[in-house]
């Protein structure tokens, strides 16, 4: 990891940079009670469930007990009213689904989307563990999806961040060996194995590559968990098809392309602009809160703003 630490931090991240974000992981949270201007509150998004309840024991009904906890089967069988006693689950599983595919290796004037995704994951991981919840992850690129089961410790967060940094530094310009759709499918296949009920799933991605099958998998996750989308885009992606002239570079070679070509504009609109809009529509359809992130502004500031923090 240290051999690449001299690389441009806007292009590649490293474990040290992600570790230091621990000191910026404040002023936001994912608890059920949210500020009024948070993206996680309001009638158009799902409410966070909060920590779950564990069944402890069955007891005779006492005056003042909540009637909603009555166990009618036991009551009918014994002829005496019984209620279920629950205790609050102190820890909650939070799953970070971190996109490190080739489509994320893009940035116009700020950081690469892949670096932004890594920083979002780091900030949330540190905050989750600080709140005594457990954090796990699935880090996926064009070829593989690495899953790490939830735990709660500083060393566990460092393990996650190290794996993110490794995947991040493996990115390079070029064509992916696998399609975006297939890599998305691998992510959700791993998610079905890792993610349990009543967790918080935070998908950090640009959204490229989803299809109807992915939509069904997203729907399945939403049925049993809270899902939040951290949608990472670069400002240039929204305007690229309208530019007269563009110059692309992989760090060694440059390619000049004219945006005035009708076929290019049409292909780009279908491939990129439509992908952004379609994934936003999927999020709206299943009432998934969307936290927007760009590649220009500090990530901790964007995260606090999205979750309704007072930045004054």
TrEMBL record:
Pfam assignment, any one: DUF58
UniProt-listed InterPro entries: DUF58, VWF_A, vWFA_dom_sf
Top-level division of the source organism's lineage: Bacteria
Boundaries of every VWFA domain copy: 93-272
Official protein name in the record: MoxR protein
Organism, as annotated: Aliivibrio sifiae
């Amino acid at each position: 990891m240290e051999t690449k630490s001299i690389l441009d931090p806007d292009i590649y991240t490293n474990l040290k940079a992600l570790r230091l974000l621990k000191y910026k992981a404040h002023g936001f949270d994912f608890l059920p009670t949210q500020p009024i201007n948070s993206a996680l509150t309001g009638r158009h998004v799902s409410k966070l469930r909060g920590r779950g309840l564990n069944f402890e024991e069955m007891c005779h009904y006492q005056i003042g007990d909540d009637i909603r906890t009555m166990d009618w089967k036991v009551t009918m069988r014994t002829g005496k009213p019984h209620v279920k006693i629950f205790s609050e689950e102190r820890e909650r599983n939070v799953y970070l689904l971190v996109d490190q595919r080739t489509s994320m290796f893009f940035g116009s004037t700020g950081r690469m989307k892949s670096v932004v995704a890594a920083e979002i994951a780091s900030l949330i991981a540190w905050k989750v563990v600080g709140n005594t919840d457990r954090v796990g992850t699935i880090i996926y690129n064009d070829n593989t999806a690495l899953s790490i089961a939830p735990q709660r410790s500083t060393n566990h967060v460092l393990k996650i961040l190290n794996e993110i940094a490794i995947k991040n530094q493996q990115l390079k310009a070029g064509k992916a060996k696998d399609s975006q759709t297939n890599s998305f499918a691998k992510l959700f296949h791993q998610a079905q194995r890792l993610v349990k009920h009543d967790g918080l799933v935070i998908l950090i991605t640009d959204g490229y590559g989803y299809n109807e099958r992915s939509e069904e998998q997203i729907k399945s996750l939403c049925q049993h968990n809270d899902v939040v989308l951290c949608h990472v885009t670069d400002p240039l992606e929204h305007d690229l098809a309208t530019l007269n002239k563009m110059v692309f570079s992989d760090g060694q070679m440059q390619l000049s392309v004219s945006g005035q070509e009708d076929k290019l504009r049409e292909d780009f609109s279908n491939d990129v602009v439509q992908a952004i809009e379609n994934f936003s529509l999927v999020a709206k359809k299943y009432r998934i809160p969307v936290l927007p992130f760009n590649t220009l502004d500090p990530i901790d500031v964007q995260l606090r703003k999205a979750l309704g923090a007072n930045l004054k």
